[in-house]
Amino acid sequence: MKLFDAHCHLQDPRIISKAPQLISSAVASGVSSFAVNGVSEKDWNLVKEMGVKYPSVVPCFGIHPWYVAERSPHWFETLKSLFETTPSAAVGEIGLDKGSKGREIDFSDQVGVFRQQLELAKELNKPASIHCVRAFGDLLEITKSVGPFPAGVILHSYLGSAEMVPEFAKLGAYFSFSGFLMSMSEKKAKKMLKAVPSDRILLETDSPDALPKSESGDLYFVEGDPSLSEEVNSPQDLESNASSGGSMKLPKETLNHPANIHIVLGYVARLLDMKNEELAELSYRNAVRLFSYPGSKLLLEKGAADVSGGTQDNSTTHVPSSS
């Protein structure tokens, strides 16, 4: 069983020093690829370096709405040049935010930066990973005016309504689900999930954020997480995937390990009345299709497999190592 983490932030300062171990253990658990999203000019080169170092990392570059005010006067030229030198990269994280943090950022400024990046993604024929908080009406209006998107867009950690799903799907959207889905009522989440076309479902961790809830005690923890007690951070607990995790009240700052995509898989599969293996295969194929744009690592690996005599479809040949 293979999984594709369609959106995460392994370059985040909270976990970057642990990235080799996190990637290694996640890959060992069955996660074959990670779409690592930059959020500002400050981390783009770090994301690029991770893409070079780890075959399993798909680099993504973009300005997140929270960091719009920090951009330099030449941010767009820098972004375009990065895509020229890094053909394997996708676009992200970009978006709109009217939540508590987003309200601190001028919304017209957010819209301008978002639209520029969305238009660039379409021009480059690359998928874009989109953050949207309390701005789905605005997002739909902008995506309708810029789209459709043959290369796809990812509505990451989607928490919008079931009613909006068909509108976004018509434009080429994929819907990616993380531990944040557990903040929705199960009834509402199930209705929304059932509205998503099966060929547009993705799974993600948004690591190091979006820690999923788990009653079965099978969470992976990030070793050395400062939010956890020394007992939880002991090697014994970490090696057993924190067997006591189901009975603990975890701090909201607890870091999310990318291997916790398995918890998201189980939750989404249960709400969709699917077997874990079935949803894993479906979401993996969807992610491989989406990330097989010109220049992508997935296409390059398929080409190498074809040259060596491989005849499998590209949705089943991508098995990169973590080193």
Report the radius of gyration as a whole number of Å: 19 Å
Spatial ordering of strands, largest sheet = 1-2-3-4-5-6-7-8
Rounded to the nearest angstrom, the distance between the terminal CA atoms is: 20 Å
Number of strands: 8
What sort of overall outline do the alpha carbons produce when their principal axes are compared?
globular
> Which band does the percent of strand residues land in?
5-15%
Protein name: TatD related DNase
InterPro entries: Metal_Hydrolase (IPR032466), TatD-like (IPR001130)
Keywords: Metal-binding
Organism: Eruca vesicaria subsp. sativa (Garden rocket)
How would you describe what is shown here?
A divalent metal cation 1 binds at residues 7, 9, 93, 206. InterPro entries: Metal_Hydrolase (IPR032466), TatD-like (IPR001130). Residues 230-246 have a biased composition (Polar residues). The protein is α/β, with parallel strands linked by helices and 323 residues long. It is built from 11 helices and 8 strands. It has an 8-stranded parallel sheet with strand order 1-2-3-4-5-6-7-8.
How is the secondary structure organized here?
Blueprint: E1 3-8, H1 19-29, E2 31-37, H2 41-53, E3 57-61, H3 75-85, E4 90-97, H4 107-124, E5 128-133, H5 136-146, E6 153-155, H6 165-170, E7 173-177, H7 186-195, E8 201-203, H8 235-239, H9 261-271, H10 276-290, H11 297-307
Parallel strand pairs: 1-2, 2-3, 3-4, 4-5, 5-6, 6-7, 7-8
Helix pairs in contact: 9-10
InterPro entries: Metal_Hydrolase (IPR032466), TatD-like (IPR001130)
Keywords: Metal-binding
Binding site for a divalent metal cation 1: 7, 9, 93, 206
